[in-house]
Structures
1.
Amino acid sequence: MTFEAMWHDLAPIGRTASGGYFRQPFTAAERECHAWFLTECARRDLTVHTDGVGNVVAWWRPEGAAGPGVLTGSHLDSVLDGGAYDGPLGVVSALAALDLLRERGVAPSRPLGIGVFVEEEGSRFGSACLGSRLATGALTPAAATELRDRDGVWLADAMAEHGLAPTSSDLLDGVGVFLELHVEQGRALIDHDAAVGVASGIWPHGRYRFDFTGVADHAGTTRMEDRHDPMLTHAMTVLAANKQARLQGARATFGRIEVVPNGTNAVPSRVTGWLDARARDEEALTALVAAISTQAQDRAGRDGTSLQVTPESVSASVHFEPELAARLATEHDGGAWPVLPTQAGHDAGVLSLAGIPTAMLFVRNPTGVSHSPHEHAEMADCLLGVHALADSLERLLR
Ligand code: GLV
Ligand code: MN
Ligand code: MN
C-alpha cells in the first residue's frame, strides 16, 4: 500500500458535506479509522498491543532488534469539522516510512513501533491528549472517570460500548524515543521556504470554562437597565480576551458557547463559554488568564451577574531535547530543516513531559490553516515528509 493509496482509503471516513471531518473518540467514524489502522498493521505483520483505553502500538521487531524501541505515529481523532491531516498524516506517514525502511533493507537494531493515541484533540471529553495522558500516568483513571461529553455521556460509558475503560496502561513500557510527524498548523515553514521542519517546543496552553450566571427574564418587557444579562458579560469577556492576547503577543479564543435556555425572546439565565488560551511561557499564560478573568469579574459586577472560572485542561510548556532536535534537523542530505516552536498541543508533548526523549517533524501547510476543513498539505510535501521520517527513524534505529 503506497502513501497515496492509504490516504485515499482513509479519506472518506467521517467526512461530511463541508469536506471537514467528525472523528470524535469512541464514535463509529473514529472506530472505523482504528479498524483501518489495524488492517494496515496486519498487512505488515506487526505485533499489535492495545491498552484498556484504546491507544494502540504496533511493533516491528525483526530478528536482531532489541532494547528500548523507537516509537512514531500520531492520532486519528479530529476536532469538530476538522481537517484531514491533523493526526492522520503522522499515522499514514509512519506506515509508509516503515515500508520504505523495509524496501531499503534496513536491519534495525531496535524495535520500531507505530502508535495511535485516542482523543488527542479533547474534542469530545474536553481533556486534551486524553489517551497519551492516561498512558503516561499524567491523568489518573479516577480523574478520567469524572469526564462527560456535551450530551452528558460519561467517558466510561462511551468506552464501554467498545470494550474499553479508563484505566492505566503499560503500553509505553519499552519506548526509548518518540518521533511524531505532524502537519504544520501555522505558516512558519512557508516563511522558511521549507517542506519539513523540526519542533523546538510547545507553548503552554489551557482550556478554561467561564460560567456566567444572570437572571432569566422577558426580552420585551424587561427594561434594559433592569437586566442581569450574562450574555453581555460574556460578550465583553470575548472582546477583553482578544485585546489581552494581542497586547501580550499570546492567543485567546472563545470557540464554544452554551446558552440557557437559548431562546430568542428571553434574557438568558446562564451562559457558559470556553476560553482556549496559549502563551510563550507559563508566567505569561497565567498573566493572560488572570487579566481576562479580572476584566470579566469587573464587568459581571457592573452587569449584576456572577462568574466562575474553572480550568478544565491545562498543558505545561514543552521543551523538546535541543540535541535531538538539532541532530534530526542537520544529520541528513540537503539543507538543514528549520527548528521552530508551535502553539498547538500534541501527544509528543505529553510523552516528552513524561520523560521520554521526544521530537517532532512538521510538514509544510501551504495556507497555515488547521482545525478546519481547509487544512491542507501538498502530496509532494507529504512524500518528502515520509522520506524525512524514514531517514530520521533509520538513524534512531541504529
Ligand atoms: C490540538 O491540536 C490543540 O492544539 O488544541
Ligand atoms: Mn494533532
Ligand atoms: Mn489538532
2.
Amino acid sequence: MTFALRVERWWGDLVTGLAPYNDPVETAGRALELAAAAYLQRQDDLHLLDEKRSLEPDWFQRPEMVGYAAYAERLAPEGTGLAGVAERVGHLKDLGVGYLHLMPLLQPRPEPNDGGYAVADYRQVRADLGTMDDLKTLASTLRADGISLCLDLVLNHVAREHAWASAARAGDQRYRRYFHVYPDRTLPDEYERTLPEVFPDFAPGSFTWDEELAGWVWTTFNSYQWDLAWDNPDVFCELADVVLFLANQGVEVLRLDAIAFLWKRRGTASQNEPEVHQLTQALRALARITAPALIFKAEAIVGPTELVHYLGQGRHYGRVSDLAYHNSLMVQIWSMLASRDSRLATHALGRFPANPSTTAWITYLRCHDDIGWAIDDADASAVMLEGWRHRSFLSEFYMGAFAGSTSEGLAFQHNPATGDQRISGSAASLAGLGSALAVAQEVTTIEGFEEATSAVDDAVARILLGYAIVYGWGGIPVLWSGDEVATLNDAAWAKDPAHAQDNRWVHRPRLDWACVLEAREDPASAIGRVYTGLRQLARVRASLPHLHASVPAQVVASPEPGIFAVLRRHPVGPLLELYNITETPQQVPAWWVREVGRINVDQCVDALNGYPPNLERDGSIHLSTYQPVWLVSDRS
Ligand code: GLC
C-alpha cells in the first residue's frame, strides 16, 4: 500500500527526470521494477526509519546537526576495520556529531585508486575493512547512537577493473556502450578544446587510449577512472540499483561524487549540463519511492550560479539533492584570513542565489581534497581586485611564499596554461600553527618566547574563527578528521608509493589518538584549545534555533573591512554574527548593530560565551584578535 502511494506521488518526477532518454516511460518502468524488488528486501527497521524521517523531514537541517568526515581505517584503531569505527562513537558524540561521512570504502581497484574513488565493485566492502554485513552492522550501531552514515556514490566513473569495464575490454558491445569510447582522436580532440583538465599534472587530458578496448575512453580524472555513459539508459538502471542497494544497507546519505561531470556535450565544459539535474531527479524519485530516509548530497565544486541548481532551482525545486558542499564559503574564509579583508567575501556570498528552505549546505573549512581558488572574476572586480591576481596571491600566501605568511601548504596541480594553482595542506598548517610551534620550540629569549606564544595563539584563533563561521552558517558543518586536534601536515605523506604523486595525502593522516587524549587532558594546550573550542561551538549551535538550515544566512556589509558579518532572522529573534578576521582588535558601532543587526548592544548576549559583549566607552562592541561573536537578544 505504502509503496503504491509513493509510486503515485513520485511517478511524475521519475518520468520527467528520464526525459533525456528516447523512451522515458520504458526506462521508468524498468527502474520501478528495481525499486519494487528493493522495497521488498528492505529491512523492517529501515522501513520504520522511512516513516520516522517522513515525520521529521528537517532532521538534517537542525542546529544540533554536526558532521564528521574520515577514512574508516584512519579513524578506527589500527587494523580494526569497520568494527573499529564503532569504537570512536564516544569521541564523535563528544564533538556533537550526528552525521559521519566515511570516505570511499567499497571495493576499489588495487592502488593507485584515487583514495578509493576508482570503484571496482559497488556491492563489496574493501576486504581489509570488513564485509557488507559489517557495514550494515556499523550503520545500525551508529544509528542507535544518533549518527547517520554517509557514503560516497562514485557515479561518474568506475575503475578500469570494474566488471562492466572488463566486459567492454573483452569486446562485449553492450558494455562498451557503458562508456564513451572513440576509435580515433577526432572527437576527443574536438571535446578537449572546451574541457578543463582536472588533474593536469598527473592525468593530463580527458581521454585515455586503451589497447584492449582499441579506442580512446573518456577519463575525466585519472586514466584508470572510466567515465560512465549516462546517455545510455542501461547505465541509469545499473546505478539506480546501486543507490537502492546502498540504501538497504542502512546508508542514510549518499554523496554524489563528481556529479557535475555526468553529462557530456560537445563545445561545452561538459559540466552542469541540464541533464545532470534531470537524472538526479529521477534517481531521487526512485529513492523516495523505496527508501525515503535516504537523502542526497551533491559534490559539485562549481561556481555559485551553477551550484544552487544542485539543491533544486526552477522545475527541479525540491526534487534533487538535499545537501551540497558550500565550496565558495570555504574559499572565502581562507581568502579573508589571508587578506584580512571581508569585502570580497561579503560581495560574493551576498549575491549567492537562495537555496530552497528544505535543503542545507555542507559547510567546511577543510576536506580530503585540495583547495581550488574559486574566486569569480566579476566578484573580484566588483571590489576593485583582479581575479587572477587575487587567486595567485592566495596560492602564494598558503604556500608560505608571501611576505608575512606562515602557512605551510603545498602547490597542487599547477597549470601553466591557465596559471591555475590549487593548495593542499591541513587546516592547522594552513593557519600557521606548524610554523608557530616550530619557532616556539627553538626560542631562547623571553621576547622570542612571547612572540612565539602569540603566533601560536593567533594560529589557534584562526582555526577556531574559521570553524565558527562554518558552524554559524546553518546547514551541516562538517569537521575533517584530525582538525579537532589541529593535526598538522603529514611529513611522511609521500612514503607510500601509491600516494607519492598526489600531495592531497599531506592532509589525510591517520587520526592521532594520543593527541585526542592529550587535548582532552590539557585544555590549555594549543590542541586542547582547538578541541574544547569545537566542542563548545557544537553545544552553542545546538541551543540556537536561529541556526536551523531553513533560516537563510544573510551576509551583511560590515562597517569595517576587518569584520565579516552574518545575520540570521528567525521568528525567535535575530542572531548577528560578527567575526574579527584580523589579528588587530576591531570595533563595531552600537548604531550599526541596532540598525543592521536589529539588536540593542545593552540588551544582548554573546551566545558563544553567555556573557554580554565587551563594550567600549562609546557603546561600540569590542572584538579582540580573531574573535567570533554571536549576538542574540537577552530576553531574561
Ligand atoms: C571527487 C573527490 C576527489 C576525487 C574525484 C574523482 O572530486 O572528492 O577526491 O579525486 O571526485 O572521483
